[in-house]
């Protein structure tokens, strides 16, 4: 069974640009969540989608948005990039979103904003 | 608000020895899940072990065990017979009854010395 796939693995952008990251969850999983990881702030929750509906959103500005498609694949978009958006973005998938359920993470997309 | 505290930024352990990584949490919920993940330098978060708030017995998964003390709100990870491949960042995380996001600690960097 294939794991969580995130593309691209690395991205280099300049300030003011926008970027789209992609995440394909494990087959059959309907929950996809996104996390930002930085050395200063650690791992922070961005948002979670379940069956194409956003169920929860973290404390990030509106420049961060996401969506989920009918095949459960998810995309995250960051507009008007800032230097502070440089981070490892991790996607995680689950089947139910129930609190007892572990999440499966991808290898992440390393975004560098110059 | 939920909070996870890991007070050990870095730990060293001799190969084949056991090591305990500390984790305390704060929540007012009665139903929650506690997780430990390992993050090697490749970036992917690897699930290690899970403990539910209503589980009376401490969880074990191979060389990993979780020392769960509910009254003290602690969920320490014990790694027995450390191996060189155990060198990585270790994150404690909690999911509450809403289930939609993980709250992560700041992590502990474990180095196994030959």
Word description of this protein:
The complex is a heterodimer of chains A (114) and B (114). In chain A, the strands form two sheets. In chain A, strands 2, 4, 5, 6, 9, 10 and 11 form a seven-stranded mixed sheet that branches. In chain A, strands 1-3-8-7 form a four-stranded antiparallel sheet, with no helix packed on it. Chain A has no helices and eleven strands. By secondary structure, chain A is mainly β. Chain B is mostly beta strands and 114 residues long. Chain B contains no helices and twelve strands.
Summarize the topology.
The complex is a heterodimer of chains A (114) and B (114).
Chain A: E1 5-7, E2 10-13, E3 19-24, E4 31-38, E5 42-50, E6 53-57, E7 64-68, E8 74-78, E9 87-94, E10 104-105, E11 109-113
Parallel strand pairs in A: 2-11
Antiparallel strand pairs in A: 1-3, 3-8, 4-5, 4-9, 5-6, 7-8, 9-10, 9-11
Chain B: E1 3-5, E2 10-14, E3 19-21, E4 24-26, E5 32-39, E6 46-52, E7 60-61, E8 64-69, E9 74-79, E10 88-96, E11 102-104, E12 108-113
Defining traits:
heterodimer; A: four-stranded antiparallel beta sheet; 11 strands; B: 114 residues; mainly beta; 12 strands
DSSP strand content of chain A: over 45%
Give the helix level of chain A as a range of percent. Answer: under 10%
Radius of gyration of chain A: 13 Å
The helix fraction of chain B, in percent, is under 10%
User: Span from first to last CA of chain A?
Assistant: 37 Å
Mean pLDDT of chain A: 95
Beta-strand percentage of chain B?
over 45%
Structure summary, number of beta strands of chain B: 12
Model regions low in confidence, pLDDT < 50 over at least 5 residues of chain A: none
For the largest beta-sheet of chain A, the strand count, sense and barrel status come to: 7 strands, mixed
First-to-last CA distance of chain B: 41 Å
Mind describing the biggest β-sheet of chain B?
A: 6 strands, mixed
Mean pLDDT across all amino acids of chain B: 95
